[in-house]
Each structure stands twice: as structure tokens, then as C-alpha cells.
Amino acid sequence: MAPPANRRSGFSRRAQYSTFFQYTAGVLGAVVGLGLLVVSMVNPNAFSALRGAASDLTESPAQATAGGRRAGKDFMAEIGGFFLSGREHARLERELAEAKVRIARAQATETENRRLKQLLDLREDDGRPVAYARLVSSTGASTRRFATLGAGTDKGVVKGMPVRSPMGLVGRVLEVGMSSARVLLITDTESIVPVRRARDGVPAFAQGHGDGTIRIRLVNLGLNPLRKGDVMVTSGSGGLYRPGTPLAVITELLRDGAMARVLSNPSDTDYVVVERAWAPPPPPPPAEPAPGSE
Amino acid sequence: MPLLSGNDTVVKQRINRKPSRTIAGGVPWLTVMLGSLAPGWVLIASAPVLPPLGFLMFIAWRQLRPGLMPMWAGLPLGLFDDLFSGSPFGTAVLLWSLSTIVLDHVETRLPWRNFLTEWLVAIGLIVAYIVLCLGVSNIAGACAPLNVIVPQIVISVIIYPLVGRFVALMDRLRLTPFVVMR
Question: Is B74 close to A141, i.e. CB distance below 8 A?
Fold first, then answer.
């Protein structure tokens, strides 16, 4: 390709000045960017209102693309299902027969649980969801893992609420706009969730690794009790996440923990549930000293 | 005859027309902004796999038409990108402005260009941009390792010529004469 037009300004004052101001404006842009960056690092919430307004404005096209995404996935699933339907049907019938027996047993356990809780005078907190909404967009080109939720203050979403899908925990609400909210996904490196092993309650922390997997860090160091295939669920310690929400399956063991795969892949979930932030029950009052013991 | 008459209609469409001033000026800005929005809509990604399309478009426009967007174009376009990219606010403003200056400098040094040199220059800018974005968000609180962005870099580098083709198409569209002159 030929070189662009001659850039030399020559003796023309006007040309010299315009070149100079062009470069000055370019450098000024970089300086402004540096200033904004410093402000946003010192105070990460400084521009949350601006971001909220922007995601509110682009929410309707994002909803449309989310619908398109869903339709595309359904189409592929239907083609796949055509080939696999016979085998799937047989498997599902077998599983259904097993599940019917299990559900009867579970109902019995649940009744007994309720009776025992009544005996102990424990109260069930309100576990009803706040809103059902779609994850409409995400930051696919960034190393941070945020998603935009198609519900905001109009549906009662408040900062800090956990977000889950039927499969498991998805993340928590970070910023709320009028009709959209920003969700920090559990695969982000800044997200740390207290978890325990579903089977026996080995405590650990689940931190995002940035590439779609999760790093499990054990609280008790020493012998690593984890095994491949263990399911980690939220433990609810510290509040926020309701205990018992499934989170990840361990795929690879490390010296002081494990790598795990997320159970509810956000790209497969259509609708998610926003729950109320969970607060741990207050500790029981201290036992009163027997009169006359002092 | 249909061929000739077809040509005739093209001539009839083109003659006494000029490109619209708003479209000629606005298309580059619009495509870059659309490029900033698009990666978020494609899928709910659980890893950084999509190319930063806004930045790729920006570079492609600057390489195709160096003087079309002013030197300060990185400021408003970067601001728009920052609203949706997920990096700390200001990252794109800083890096897009810097890349404009760097690209301008390279162009004065390498006046004669071809496909390969343009791609190589763009590869340098893309790799630097993605790595610096990771660095900035790591300083701001994240702690993602470097190997997370390798797929994204590879995809961005490979997709860049396609983005260049798209930008060239948009450039033709931009300069299509259809407004009737008086």
C-alpha cells in the first residue's frame, strides 16, 4: 500500500499547530485514562452508577440476544436428542423408578426433621426467592468474570444477594441498576465462597481461578482428605450464601487443596434465581449462672 | 442484455449522488461501539475466550484510514468500552489512547505497508493490550495467572484479518453515494 499523504507540516503555521494539537489531544486522552484508572482503583464503586445506567440502557437488546442464544442451544439439543432419544428414554425410566422410592424416603426424613426442629424450637427463615431473571450478558473479553442480570431494583434485587440456578450457585449481586444488576460469578478470581464437602463437612474456601475452574483451599492444612468426584456445597459460614447450595465437583487434587469444576455453568443456565442474603442464626444466649454460685 | 441493463441501473443509482455526510463520519464510531458490546452478548463466558472486538475494530479503522478518527478518539470510545468490558474503569481510555499514539509513530517509521506488516504491527498491539488489561485488573484486586489469557490472544490474533475485512466492507458502505445532489 502506498504511504499516506505527506505528514510534513512545512512552514505553514496552521499545519504545524494542528499537528501539535492532535498529538496533545492524544496524550491528554492517555492522561485522562490514567486518572480514571487511579480513581477506580482507589474507589472501585466510583463509577458503578454510570455502569448501571449503561447496562440499563443496553438491557433490552441484551435480552433479545439472550433469547437468540437460548433458541440456538435448543436447536442443537433437539438435533442431538433425535439420535439419543431411545437410549435416554430407557435410562430415564430406570432412574424415575429409583427416584420414586427415594422421594418417599426423603419425605419421611423431612417430616421427622420438622418435628425435631419444633422440639428444639428452631425457626425456618424465609427461603423464598426474590426474583427470577435471565443472565443477559457477560464480560467475555475480559479476565474479570462479571455477568449482567436482567433484573434490578424494579424487582427488589439488592446488592449482596446470592444468585443461583437449579444446578447450583452462580454468583452474587455486586451492583444494582434500575432494570439490571451486575453479578460477580464464582469463577472470578476475586470471589471467595466458604464451602464444605457435602458428604462429611470438611471446611474449605472456593476461589475462582479465572479460567472457568475453581480452586479449593482447605482450611485445615495437613493430610489432604479430598478425593476426585467430591461435591462441595456452600457452608454458610459468615452469612451471605445459604448453606447447602451445591457449587463444584473436584476434578484434580493438589498438595493443599484441589481444582474443581463448576456445577452450574453460567453459559448453560437460562433463568437464574436471586435469593435473599442469608444471615446465620444468632448464637444462643449464654447460660445463666446458677443463683448463689458466686 | 440483462447484464447491460443491470449495469445501467447501477450507473443510474450512482450518478448525481453523493455519500451521506453523517454516515461517512458516523460509521467508524458506531462499528467500534458495537464491537465493544458484541462479545458480552455472544455467550455467558466462564473464561476469557472472546476477542476484544472493540479494540480490534479500533485498530483496524486506524490502519485502514489513519486520519479518519482524530487522535483523541480513544477517549470517548475507550470510555464506552470501559462501561461494558469489566476491567477497572479507565483501562480502555488509557490503553486505546496509547495505542493510537504508538500506531501513528509506527506508521511514520514504516510508510510502505502490506498485509503482513500491518498484521504484525496489530499482533504486537493486541498482545500488549490483552496482557496489560490482565495486569491492570490484577493490580485492582484480581489474581488471574498469565496462562488464562493464552486462548484469548490466539483467537484475537487469528480473527484480526477478518475484522479488517469487515472494516473494509464498512468503509465501502460508508462511502456509497446515495444522497441526491441538487
Answer: no
Q: Which CATH class is domain A131-274?
A: mainly beta
pLDDT value for A126: 61
CA distance to partner chain B, nearest, from residue A201 (Å)? 27
Residue ranges of domains in chain B: 10-179
Residue B144 CA to residue A35 CA, distance in Å, equals 24
Cα B91 from Cα B74, distance rounded (Å): 11
Query: Which phi and psi angles does B71 have, rounded to 5°?
Result: -60, -30
**Would you say B139 and A41 are in contact if contact means Cβ atoms under 8 Å apart?**
yes
Distance between start and end Cα atoms, chain B:
31
> Residue A277: what pLDDT?
86
**Three-class SS state of A234:** strand
ipTM reported for the complex surpasses 0.85: no
Helices marked H in chain B = 2-14, 21-42, 53-64, 74-85, 91-109, 115-139, 150-174
DSSP state for residue A231 in the 8-state scheme: E
The alpha-helical segments, DSSP class H, found in chain A are: 13-42, 48-57, 59-120
Note the pTM of the prediction, 2 decimals: 0.83
Task: For A249-284, give the DSSP string.
Answer: EEEEEETTEEEEEESS-TTT-SEEEE-PPB-PPPPP
DSSP β-bridge partners for residue A217 = A205, A257
Contacts of A139 in chain B (CB under 8 A): 39-40, 45, 84-86
- Per-residue pLDDT, A31: 93
**How does pLDDT run across A204-218, given as a tens digit for each residue?**
999 988 888 899 998
Domain regions of chain A by residue span: 131-274
pLDDT digits (tens, 9 = 90+) for A230-261: 889 998 888 888 888 888 999 988 888 899 99
A174 vs B contacts (CB less than 8 Å): none
Chain A CB contacts of B41 below 8 Å: 61-62, 65-66, 69, 137
Distances from the Cα of A171 to the Cαs of A188, A247, A266, B144, B154, in angstroms?
A: 9, 10, 9, 18, 28
Can you read off the three cell numbers belonging to residue B94? 488509557
pLDDT at A71: 83
- Position of cell 506488516? B117
Asked whether B110 and B124 are in contact (CB, 8 A), the reply is: no
